[in-house]
Amino acid sequence: MKSSMDRPGPPRLSRRVLTGLFREREREHLVGEIDELYSVRLERRGRSSARRWYRWQVVHFTVRLGGAALWRAGSGVLADVFLPTRRFRHALRRLAARPGYAVVAVLTLGIGVGGVATVYSGAEWVLLRPVPGVRDPGSLVTLIMGSSEDNGTYRFSNPQFEDLESGLGGRVALAASSPVEVDVGTEGGALPERHTGELVTADYFAVLGVYAQAGRVFRPADHAANAGPAEVVVSDRLWRNQLDGRPDVVGGEIRINSEPFTVIGVAPRGFRGAELPGAADLWVTPSAIGTVRQGEGTDALSQPGHGVWRKLVGRVSPSMTVAVAQATANRALDAWREAHPGGPVHQVYRVYGGVGLDPGLRSSVRRSILLLAGASTLLLLLAVANVANLSLARAASRRSDSAIHLALGAGRWRIALDSLAESVLIGGGGAVAALLVAVGGSRVFATSSFADGGASLDGMALDWRVVVVAVLVAAFAGLLAGIAPATSASREARLVDLSGRRHGHRGSSRFRGSLVVVQVGLSTMLVVSAALLARSVANLRNIDMGYRPDGVAMFSIDPSLHGEDAARTTRLVAQLRDRLGREPGVRSVAAVYPALLEGWSFPASFYPPGAEKSMATRITAAAFMATPGLLETLGSDVLAGGDFPEATAGKATDEVILSESVVRAAFPGVSPSEVVGRSVPGRGDETLRVIGVVRDARMTVVDFDPEIYNEAAVAIRPWAGSDAESATVLVRTSGPPERMFTRLRAAAREVAPSLPVYDLRSVRMQADRLIAGRLAIARLALTLAMLGLLLAGIGLYGLLAYNVTERRREIGVRAALGAQPASVLGGVVAGGLGLTSVGLVAGFVGAAWSGRLLESRLYHLSSFDPLSYLTCLVVLLAVALLASLWPAWRAMLISPMESLRADG
Amino acid sequence: MAAAKNVLGGFEHEVLLAMLHLGKDAYTAAIVLELEQRIGRDVAAAAVYMALRRLEENGLVDSVLRESEGRGGRRERRHFEVKSEALDLLRESKWRLMQLWDGLPALGASEERR
Question: Are residues A340 and A395 in the same domain?
């Protein structure tokens, strides 16, 4: 028989685990028992079986002992915390006795967690919400035709679209759409209203899986009917607002651009087209192209070079991925090119997964989400740190109570439970507060102040999943923040005498100090980021437009949609100028086409006089048509010459007003005043006479990359009507333009009672719409930063107030020894500012790191912008000063006698 | 303070009986082996350990730490002893079971024949 020495022992790791499971005094003999059983197994069944058995025994012991411990602790807590309401009544009474702590902790949790829930819901609303009414968005793709050269997009002609559809071999069901702007009126109803609609192929709804809530949508079979009946599907919004939610809407008639259409159905609630944010209120098939697109007949649909469709949506079969669809589409494009030589060569098909958010925006949107998620997390951390800090201070201030309880025979467990009951109450209160803040915050977000800038938070709703998570987080954070103080309360109570004085370490005070440093650091990061974003948006808003955008109102009319001819439109524009010009408070009026700051314009071409007309010599500019008075109304910087003369208003002349960069390119080295009166060759054999030179004007977009294309180079021709589809009337007012809106609308109605006035807003609002996304992000970031500041302030205040209470005696002694009140005050404030400075330094380091993530979103601003950092420094120091002043004041008022007597 | 529970769990019942078989040598490992030998299947040591702890908490067994000789050589072991309260409970439950079995056909036999 082998001796026990050379027998293989039990698995070493398992044995160590087993050893750790038992209490010390039981350990040796119990492990011995298992070893004994192991050796029996070893003899009877062999080594591997025995070792397996041993491991199983360890698992058994772990589960059973752990389970028993959990059960005992759990049932103990449940019984102790939840069963006796007495404990809660006591906790409530304790909290109510000094309500400051409870109020601040609940508010902190509410603001922190509720704020984060609101911001997340807002971000989700802007960025992530699914398109309402669309079935199974996972199998949808968006297909656009881009350019291999730049960010531009092409429209698909109908033949090219059909070619692509057949090229995809039936594995992708494709539908096409294109936005249209139309006026919608009702029989005998009020003035027509302007709406965005979509021209769609008949299978559009089928591909998206959108069903009508009343009536029907287009059927794929309607597709062939190029000259089919005039039918329209309206949105829920149009139905409810303009059509008064009439139940008999289906089968009824509406007028689109004065043409009668039969309403065949109402789209599901919330569906505004496949894009987000969607704007479509009605859908028509290509048979209506002549009505919704002036000057286009259905014959345009058969021309391979005539762009009709802007965006395609497709439902892919399950076997197909986006990559495969892309490859297939590429092959289809190659085949199309071979069949149609001479077409644009830069065209590329781009396939994206899903519908909704514009594919071109997705990467920037993803960055925005990351940014907000980061900021929200910081805020959440801040809130939790704050509550933990408050609870620690609270626990410490209850030391003498605890000591008395201990002395009277209460167990440490009881004392910890008392603290825990409080934090359950705080956590619950925090959850309720967070809910209230989230509901209120989302209301604020959804109302006009945010929607003004077109930030598309309009109509935002709380995401209830976010709210549920947030409320759970609040409750959990409250509880968690209470656990540490609860255990420390029971531990520390032993070190304390009945007067509440503690004997021993000051470690927990240092810990609370470092929590405040962390808080200041986190909010520094938030504030710097928000300041950077705000400064960037301010840069965008204060950008030199080349004219003065403030104090100008604008609105548009579209006479051509109602069958008015060009001459009548020109007359109407003249009448409007005359009528509005007589309105009190109006300084000047002009009309322009296309609309100002709409994001697009027509290109105009010029060539240096005497030079050969070629691509190399071509000078491009954004072309606008305007009545006299534009330069005055816009407040343009006129460098030489002047505006069109009133005498020739409405007549097509050869006059042109050019901006300086066009002039510089066409007449190198010639001063603007010498250019006035000279001729400049234009497109074809056209020659134009320069009558004015202005500074470059951002009339199309607010910001652009001058390296790619100078969008501010403009050429303004006199309004002659024939080319204008619509007219945008600009009105410079002597007061704020917003106050004039009602009167402007009424005056316009006097002149043209049957024409809807649309897009009535100030030029500033129009400009803000172009940077709405960045404005929204900056506002959300600012909101988060404000909340962060508030929380850091509260945290600092809490710590200092606690420290003052703690050091009452010491301060009293110092006062007794002749310390000046000012030095006491200064000491407390300096302590607060000291902590803040440490936090600031740490926060700046963090901000420098996180600023790199912001870099791409900043306009003409470095992520190390000193002013943003300085602002943060000043703001945080101010908050710190504010937070320390009250505790310092209280410290100063401590009278030596009182504090000494109180301590006995 | 722990008043004896007046009902025994199934496994506790078995552990107590095994202890009675072992007499003075009733310690955990021995009980495990005794149970395995008599019932003919593996018994988890942890289950026995927990049952013994429960029984001791309920005042049905006593234990004492002492050195003894066994399979694993001479070492300190916790030896358990069945208390009179446990004997009463065992007797009572046996009596109850017998009352219930009285008059029933031999199930095991008829099952086997089927």
Answer: no
B44–chain A nearest CA distance, Å: 6
Structural domain of A123: 85-131+362-504
Tokens matching residue A342? 């001479």
Q: Which residues pair with A275 in a beta bridge?
A: A356
Task: Name the residue range of residue B22's domain.
Answer: 10-100
B75 neighbourhood in chain A, CB within 8 Å: 29, 32
Nearest to A361 by CA among A144, A136, A122: A144
Contact A37 B29 (CB under 8 A): yes
A603 and A456: one domain?
Answer: no
The mean pLDDT value for A149-175 works out to: 85
Q: Does residue A246 share a domain with residue A169?
A: yes
Say if residue A626's pLDDT is above 80: yes
User: Which residue of chain A has the CA closest to B79?
Assistant: A29
The answer to whether residue A12 sits within a structural domain is yes
Its ipTM equals 0.82
Q: Do the beta carbons of residue A860 and residue A541 sit within 8 Å?
A: no
Has residue A548 got a pLDDT over 90? yes
Q: Are residues A335 and A475 in the same domain?
A: no
Q: Total structural domains in chain A?
A: 4
Structure tokens, A8: 């293989």
Give yes or no for B73 touching A (CB within 8 A): yes
pLDDT of A655 above 90: yes
The pLDDT value given to residue A652: 83
Whole-model pTM above 0.80? no
How far is A40 from chain B, CA to nearest CA, in Å?
A: 8
B41 at interface of A, judged by CB pairs closer than 8 A: no
Chain B CB contacts of A32 under 8 Å are 72, 75-77
A464, exposed or middle or buried, with CB in 10 Å at 0-12, 13-18, 19+? exposed
Closest chain A C-alpha to B4 CA, distance in angstroms: 20
Number of residues written out for chain B? 114
> Are residues A276 and A389 both part of a single domain?
no
CA of A26 to nearest chain B CA: how many angstroms apart? Answer: 9
Rounded to 5 degrees, φ, ψ at A457 are: -95, 0
Q: Is B69's Cβ below 8 Å from some Cβ in A?
A: no
Judge if A614 and A490 occupy the same domain. no
- pLDDT at position A64 over 60: yes
- Do A254 and A178 share a structural domain? yes
pLDDT digits (tens, 9 = 90+) for A440-494: 877 766 653 343 333 455 556 667 777 787 778 777 777 776 666 556 655 554 5
**Model confidence pLDDT, tens digit, residues A812-834:** 888 888 778 888 888 888 888 88
Q: Of B73, B64, B56, which is closest to residue B15 (Cα–Cα)?
A: B56
A36 and B70 in contact by Cβ < 8 A? yes
Examine the domain organization and report whether A715 and A733 are in the same domain: yes
The whole-number pLDDT of residue A482 equals 65
Whether residue A512 lies inside any domain: the answer is: no
pLDDT band at residue A628 using 50, 70 and 90 as cut-offs: very high
The pLDDT score that the predictor gives to residue A695 is 94
Beta-carbon contacts of A837 under 8 Å, excluding residues fewer than 6 positions away, are none
Contact B61, B5 (CB under 8 A): no
Instruction: Answer whether A242's CB lies under 8 Å from A193's CB.
Output: yes
What CATH number is associated with residue B96? 1.10.10.10
Listed residues A354, A385, A412: the one ending a domain: A354
Q: Identify whether A749 is part of a domain.
A: yes
Mean pLDDT of A13-30: 80
Identify the pLDDT of residue B1: 38
User: Is the Cβ pair B45, A34 closer than 8 Å?
Assistant: yes
* Number of separate domains in chain B: 1
Q: Who among B32, B33, B72 is closest to A32 (CB)? A: B72
Domain stops at, among A323, A354, A385: A354
Nearest C-alpha neighbor of A793 from the set A402, A306, A383: A383
Residue B105 lies in a domain: no
Residue A100 has pLDDT above 90, yes or no: no
Count CB neighbours of A721 within 10 A: 23
Residue B80 inside a domain? The answer is: yes
